[in-house]
Write a structure and sequence with these properties.
The chain is of the alpha+beta class. It has nine helices and seven strands; from the N terminus they run E-E-H-E-E-E-E-E-H-H-H-H-H-H-H-H. Helices cover about 35% and strands about 10% of the residues. Strand 6 (about 110) and strand 7 (about 115) form a beta hairpin. GO terms for molecular function: succinate dehydrogenase (quinone) activity.
Length: about 240
Amino acid sequence: MKINLEYWRQAGPKAEGHFETHTIQNVADDASFLEMLDQLNEELFAEGKEPVAFDSDCREGICGQCGLVINGDPHGPLVTTTCQLHMRTFKDGDTITIEPWRSTAFPVLRDLVVDRTALDRIVQAGGYISVNTGAAPDAHAVPVRKEHADKSFEAAACIGCGACVAACPNGSAMLFTSAKVVHLGILPQGQPERKERVVNMLSQHDAEGFGGCTNTGACASACPKQVPLEFISMLNRDLIRAL
């Protein structure tokens, strides 16, 4: 099928950005969105033009590196990662607009690539757990209630892609931060630093320039791993106990 593309071009964080257009013929409907971008770059290279920079790694929906705003939606019209979005989702002759994540905390490095290390710094602010569980058999001997284990696993599913930030009208990373807080906060190993962890991570969240949460729910709706909105409430309860 034929696809008309409007994609963002930006030479660097301080450069002026603009849209460029290109039409690709013969796009396979079973191609992934990133494979379509590979095809775009092959055609641009053949024309003597600079390829479009975009991020990707595993291309299996695990690493979270491939985030793009596609027709106004983080990761596109389906609730999945960009690499798992296939061209059969679109129709012959469609025009697709591709932009990077839009957030003060995610400066554009080049074209569709943004710097998301702010999320790494939030995790780093949480620090380590001080509980020594020993080897794997010893760790498995620590009793954990099933509902707590299930919730922790649900939180650990967050891949840090940043779609929650891109979807939020305030540019908040509270869903991401809450997932990282809840992941350890409801496990026995996470209890010693539980109060300190939530305060430090939220302080870093605000220092990075992310906006405040107003519970619109846009973050959870866009999350490709379906991290639930209730985690933000759980984070807020931990914060109240810590202050």
